[in-house]
Amino acid sequence: MSTLPKVAWIGLGIMGSPMSENLIKAGYQVTGFTLEQEKLDRLSAAGGTAAGSIAEAVRDADVIVTMVPASPQVEAIAYGPDGILENARSGALLVDMSSITPQTSVDLAKAAKDKGVRVLDAPVSGGEAGAVEAVLSIMVGGEQADFDEAGPLLEALGKTIVLCGPHGSGQTVKAANQLIVAVNIQACAEAVVFLEKSGVDLRAALDVLNGGLAGSTVLTRKKDNFLARDFKPGFRIDLHHKDMGIVTDAARTVGAALPVGAVVAQLVASLRAQGDGGLDHSALLRAVERLSGDRV
Ligand code: NAD
């Protein structure tokens, strides 16, 4: 009989599926719920248990992990008679790994406390590949004791796991992460168009660039997407649009200026408005190509 905490996992999408499977591989009993039947079937095939509702998934759980798109979905699964807070047992630990507004995390922690449920915000960086390989960076907000308790579970999902401060701090750091990633992708995309129009061997150029100061995890992870114009997600433009809204709003609140971030936020919004919201964020290349006169 396993002595590991029993886990409920809500949200088995691009990230949640491989992450929950890594917990199963590490020996955890995982009961999951998500909206797509095929994702529930995938969980069962991996050795987990598919639940018919959030209430059923969380009822016996020691730890509840959530990985859904944005603040409205976190609120939908947390609150209300069928939600996590009404149905979790007192003393359970809720680890929300979705990327949402810091304020939503603060409000959730407060509401959960009234129900005897402890909360950590624990958004991640590293993309689908980082989720599959269990090498995510996990930025955590909440209490030290809860962070310590969640430690072994988080170590089955990621490599760099840091408590950043009180509730909401993990989300603030994740917002900064999304700013850096978007600006980095945009710079890479502009370099790709410049290099191709200059007639340079693109693969050779990206290889040597990645070995110098211009190198980055973004370039390593997205180089093949750029080369093959393969924009299957990955991380959808729709989600990065949401994150650019979060960082822009949070920065305004604290009086931080993000001039380059603001431009890239507009480019992401424009790509989405042109129907590319379902593509990987490396599709920022398409925006630069269009601005450069290419019909893509
Ligand atoms: P996704 O759209 O692939 O998956 C979201 C899942 O949430 C879906 O399976 C859906 O069924 C589930 N869901 C939504 N509403 C629900 C509800 N009411 N009840 C139960 N399940 C519900 O999204 P994703 O790419 O896995 O991203 C999840 C979160 O992780 C987002 O906040 C995203 O910003 C963040 N993130 C994504 C990546 C990435 O590369 N995809 C990387 C880091 C962080």
Kindly describe this structure.
This protein is α/β, with parallel strands linked by helices and 296 residues long. The chain is built from 14 helices and 9 strands. The strands form 2 sheets. Strands 3-2-1-4-5-6 form a 6-stranded parallel beta sheet, sandwiched between helices. A 3-stranded mixed beta sheet has the order 7-8-9. The longest helix is centred in the middle third of the chain and has 29 residues, at 169-197. It is globular and about 60 Å long.
Supply the key terms:
single chain, binds nicotinamide-adenine-dinucleotide, about 55% helix, 14 helices, about 300 residues, Rossmann fold, 2 domains, N-(1-d-carboxylethyl)-l-norvaline Dehydrogenase, domain 2, alpha/beta, globular, six-stranded parallel beta sheet
Topology of this structure?
Elements (H helix, E strand, L loop, with lengths): L6 E4 L5 H10 L4 E4 L3 H9 L3 E2 L3 H5 L4 E4 L4 H8 L5 H4 L5 E4 L5 H13 L3 E4 L2 E2 L1 H6 L3 E6 L2 H12 L2 E8 L3 H29 L4 H9 L6 H12 L8 H18 L4 H18 L7 H8 L5
Parallel strand pairs: 1-2, 1-4, 2-3, 4-5, 5-6, 8-9
Antiparallel strand pairs: 7-8
Helix pairs in contact: 9-11, 9-12, 9-13, 9-14, 10-11, 12-13
Bound molecules: nicotinamide-adenine-dinucleotide.
